[in-house]
Amino acid sequence: MTPNSAASAEPSRRSFLASTAVAAAVVAGGVPLLSACGGSQEGRKEGTTSGKDAAKILPTFVASSVVAPDIPAKNGGPAGFTTAIATADLKTSVPKKLGSGGKLKIMSPFWGTPPKGDNPYYAAMNEAIGVEVTWQNQDGVTYDQKLGAVLAASDIPDAVVVPGWNLMGKIPSAINAKFADLGPYLSGDKVKDYPNLAAVPTEAWQRGIFGGQLRAIPLPAPSVTDVAPMYRRDIFKEKGYSVPTSPDEFLSWAKEATDAKSKVWACDDMKWTAFNVFGVFPGSDKALWWNMVDGKLVNRVETEEFLEALEWTRKLFAAGVVHPDAVSGKAGGDARNRFTAGQSLVFNGNITGWWGSVSEQATQKSDFDMAAFDIFGPDGGDPTLWAGQPANIFTFVSKKATEQQIKDFLALCNYCAAPYGTKEFMLTAYGVEGTDYDMKNGLPVRTTQGVNEVNGAYDYTGNPAPYVAYPDFPEVTKGIVEWQHRMGAFTKKTSFFGLTVTEPNRWANLADNFEQLEDDVVRGRKKISDMQQAVADWKSKGGDDLREWYKKLLDDTGSAN
Predict the structure, then answer these.
(1) Residue 411 CB burial class (10 angstroms; 0-12, 13-18, ≥19)
(2) Which residues of the chain are under the pLDDT cut of 50?
(3) Interior/surface letters 267-295, b for 16+ CB within 10 angstroms, e for the rest
(4) What is the enclosing helix (H) or strand (E) of 391?
(5) Which of 399, 480, 510, 523 is the most exposed place for a label (fewest CB within 10 A)?
(6) 8-state DSSP, 241
(7) Furthest-apart CA pair in the chain: how many Å?
(8) CB–CB of 147/92 below 8 Å?
(9) What are the GO cellular component annotations (predicted)?
């Protein structure tokens, strides 16, 4: 799993306009190390689509100009909105109702207790879009099981949400067999009928190509890393600590800052930050593990950088500066709680959780302050960072859907992809004013009903280009966005960035044990030599053959970069 991800946390696709009354749940920002899906519908079920073939399929990009952000997007990072927009000043991005009044059944993961289907929020959305949606919300924790069963059946819902981390087993081939080609409605200039979808970045659409066809509405995501080393800025100031600027400085500081008798440790498990510090290829998608280096296709587990990152993290554990609960491997979701409690002073977490921690602590500790420090390189210089995939949640339409149902689905997605600062965004993100939220001091504040009803669902069927909008804590918005912009300046793309790849089944589970071995090595339960032996075994059992398969794929289709 990604750092500090909790199985029960909802992987939200929208950086919600913050409420001063309700603290957000900590969000899991990544996915387990699973392969994605691609290939050709006729014949081969493996591979990917890029280059000229993809260019024929992809929608034309038309940037949205409806609302200008306070901080423009930069270097693969999101745009930022630091101020609230008064209701009277909200713009319109969908001037006419595009839905036909038809009906759609949509299956989606849901974390928590799903609301009743006849609630005011659903009713208002249906009326505004012109499509009557019946949500078939399923438990997000066991969604992969339900998804597999539904796709194996002959009768599937009109539309289905598929998180990238559920693309395993027979699900990828079922996608190619069960879901419609959206190209006839979206490819090229056809997407201009849906202006909010036209503003979705091309890189995200590239990830929506499955089986050689544009099948998915993707969730756009920043390509720059969202795993940030977060630190207690208030405690650093109190103690007179300087922010470390190299691995050696960090270890030296960590030894000074740790006081086990007072139940204060310097950090939590820093493995994911270590991967960034030492320039390890990203781990959210196995296709990104491969990259051309000096004319040879290399997997991340074969690199010196990979071993160096594990060795540095191992030194932290060995020095006793890591919180004991992280040593014992307790649930990663507790890392943020240990951090806000002041038991650990640094942890690596999804940067989108910054607002949740600050808003929660604002009512408890008036002097609480946190920030993200910049990632440094192995020698204290500039880092070499690698881009993550620009989309990792997808929504598909059944092949059995009528042409009108597909158009109604696209009307729904276009509405939900409305940018911040629009009437459509406010309804999608906050629901009905006076019922789901009230305006207080110029900010929307959720009611209890809004908390229970306005989450998940419509958020999975359309999202604008990546953005952050927390006007109640503008410094948090600024901190998140500017950190990602700074890190984006050092971010490169591996050879398979932006591509949705299906590995042949015979090698699909080849690397499954690496993550557990990584954790064992950094905690001292295994040695670096054990990892080296595992890599040698991986190569002999199929890794070298898989390399040749990826190399041919690259030669045949080219990179999407």
Answers:
(1) buried
(2) 1-44
(3) bbbbbbbbbbbbbbbbbbbbbbbbbeeee
(4) strand 391-397
(5) 399
(6) P
(7) 67
(8) no
(9) cell envelope
